[in-house]
Design goal:
Layout: H1 2-39, E1 53-63, E2 68-72, H2 76-93, E3 98-100, E4 111-115, E5 127-131, E6 136-140, H3 143-156, E7 171-180, E8 186-192, H4 200-211, E9 217-221, E10 223-224, E11 227-228, H5 237-240, H6 257-269, E12 273-280, H7 285-290, H8 319-335, E13 340-344, H9 353-369, E14 373-377, E15 390-393, H10 397-405, E16 409-412, H11 415-418, H12 440-444, E17 460-467, H13 475-482, H14 486-494, H15 502-519, H16 533-538
Parallel strand pairs: 2-3, 2-4, 4-6, 8-9, 8-17, 9-12, 12-13, 13-14, 14-15, 15-16, 16-17
Antiparallel strand pairs: 1-7, 5-6, 5-7, 10-11
The structure holds ligand TNX.
């Protein structure tokens, strides 16, 4: 009896303890969860370039390690894009999520990438991102649009990259409807691999950096006085000798045709068209040094490792010059699936001006004979241009206007705004300053249409940020000169003019800075940006 009674008491005490435990679990659990939940919240406030429209719908989508990417139609291109998204999610959240094929349709696939060719407004590169409580959907007319949309998701996940929260927790993504498409067709970055040479892996890394900002052109400045960087089989000495050095006299280098093809393919998979530039008739000392026959007097100059411009010229009135150009353009055209060949044409101070005018016309015919569209720096407008020839503006508005009057479209690279090789301030160690100092706000606060008086929207193909590399030695230098200015050029090229403003942009950029720090990207800590902004907000 007594024993039984004692057991009862023990039973009561035990169940009371269990209940207490349960109650305390219930009260502890939410506070436990709250901390990682806050740290794991994605955001649509940081997107650069700013999308056309963002409509928050006030709820939450939960991304978890079991989330699945559903793709329709599943093919080589869309599989790559799905994989890209998967890798981005993995690198920011640590989740290894899986794919599903088209057969497995059910209501709760968590992420959907859908090509649905029905929304004309979205065009080739636009996308719609619809996030509801159950589904995250990117819809686009073309695979390219899906890929641009995936970059938006990547940026939404930026706030998570530094998170130390446990992986078992869901990533909270605010529900939203985003519709987005570019203002301009051409959004480019130019890398000068001639003044200093950069490896295939550096160029691929650059591609990785720029796709995040929805750039779609990579212009490679492949030849200049200091080096010839693309192998030409019919003129092998161009690279063997002409590619052997660089600015400062160090060992140069060059891309074999296989290297170049590797870059082109890598970029193409990421919806970036490579634009090769073979600069002529000036900026040709490396070629002249490699082949005596290209010189009017038949004598080759020395290789050049300084940084002066405007002293070299191909021999305009010699047949061998055009045999050379034909061979080079033929080989480069064969290696380049994109429609464009850039022929430079800038700073031909060592070429007689009448000769120059005739030369450009002749080269334009050669480019066309290989089925390509010619691009040149604005000096080419002194010649008679075909209306599909594209003019790249950098310095003189009157020259650019001459192109417009001939029916050419402009790529806008005003040196006082878009030249990524200009110093930020007088204290910047790298860079030149002949076009001025370009702070982050200078690179952001301009518009391609109002930059030159008399130009209208339809005359502008887009924008491009050139990085000349007289003072740029390695990838870390490349990053330092491009960031944080380059995202501003991306926004100018992609976003609608009315949607842009410096105050809002500054805040978004600060959040990108936190991401760059996390991934070890070297960038200039401009005093114009409050880089700690995100920390102040989240510690409130
Ligand atoms: C001008 S822009 C050049 C380049 C130099 C650059 C340096 C242009 C078409 N030509 O040859 O590298 O300035 O900022």
């Amino acid at each position: 009896m007594n024993n039984k009674y004692n057991f009862r008491i023990i039973e009561y005490i035990l169940s009371a303890l269990i209940i207490l435990q349960l109650v305390s679990c219930k009260t502890v659990a939410p506070t436990d969860e709250r901390k990682p939940m806050r740290e794991l919240k994605a955001s649509f406030d940081n997107i650069i370039p700013v999308p056309v429209s963002i409509n928050p719908t006030g709820s939450i989508f939960r991304l978890n390690p079991n989330s699945i990417i559903y793709i329709e139609p599943m093919n080589y291109e869309t599989r790559f894009i799905g994989q890209y998204l998967k890798d981005q999610i993995k690198s920011t959240t640590g989740y290894g999520i899986t794919f599903l094929t088209a057969e497995a349709i059910s209501a709760d696939e968590n992420i959907r990438l859908i090509i649905d060719d029905r929304d004309e407004l979205l065009g080739q590169e636009g996308y719609e991102l619809i996030i509801t409580e159950n589904l995250l959907t990117i819809k686009a007319n073309k695979a390219e649009g899906l890929f641009r949309g995936v970059q938006t998701i990547s940026q939404m996940l930026f706030p998570l990259v530094n998170s130390s929260a446990p992986l078992s927790k869901d990533v909270l993504i605010p529900t939203v409807e985003i519709k987005d498409y570019p203002r301009f067709e051409w959004r480019g970055v130019m890398l000068d691999v001639a003044r200093h040479f950069f490896s295939v892996s550096d160029v691929k890394k650059l591609v990785d950096r720029i796709v995040l900002y929805k750039f779609n052109r990579l212009h490679l400045h492949l030849t200049d006085d200091q080096g010839w960087r693309i192998q030409i089989n019919s003129w092998p000495n161009l690279t063997i000798y002409g590619g052997s050095t660089q600015v400062g006299g160090g060992v140069g280098g060059y891309f074999t045709q296989e290297d170049y093809t590797e870059i082109v393919k890598y970029a193409e998979q990421r919806y970036i068209i490579v634009v090769p530039e073979i600069d002529m008739p000036g900026h040709t000392n490396a070629a002249l040094a490699s082949y005596p026959v290209l010189n009017c007097d038949g004598i080759s100059p020395e290789l050049y490792t300084g940084i002066k411009v405007g002293f070299s010229s191909l021999c305009i009135n010699k047949d061998s010059t055009y045999i050379f150009i034909d061979d080079v353009i033929r080989e480069v055209s064969e290696l380049t699936p994109g429609p464009y060949i850039h022929i430079g044409g800038d700073e031909a101070m060592a070429t007689d001006s009448v000769d120059y005018i005739n030369f450009i016309v002749r080269v334009q015919d050669i480019i066309q004979s290989y089925g390509k569209q010619m691009i040149g720096w604005e000096e080419i407008t002194q010649s008679r241009l075909k209306s599909n020839t594209i003019v790249q503006h950098w310095r003189k508005s009157q020259l650019a206007m001459k192109g417009v009057h001939q029916g050419s479209k402009l790529i806008m690279s005003p040196s006082t705004k878009a030249y990524m090789d200009m110093k930020y301030t007088p204290d910047t160690e790298l860079g030149l300053h002949w076009a001025g100092y370009i702070e982050v706000s200078d690179a952001y606060n301009w518009d391609p249409v109002t930059q030159i008086i008399g130009v209208s929207d339809k005359d502008i193909l887009g924008v491009e940020a050139p990085l000349w590399t007289e003072t740029v030695l390695n990838f870390s230098d490349i990053e330092f000169m491009l960031f944080p200015r380059l995202p501003g050029i991306a926004e100018i090229g992609w976003s609608q003019a009315e949607a842009r403003n410096w105050e809002g942009y500054k805040m978004r950029l600060a959040n990108h800075g936190a991401y760059w720090k996390a991934i070890g990207l070297n960038f200039y800590r401009s005093p114009e940006i409050d880089w700690d902004w995100i920390i102040k907000i989240s510690s409130k």
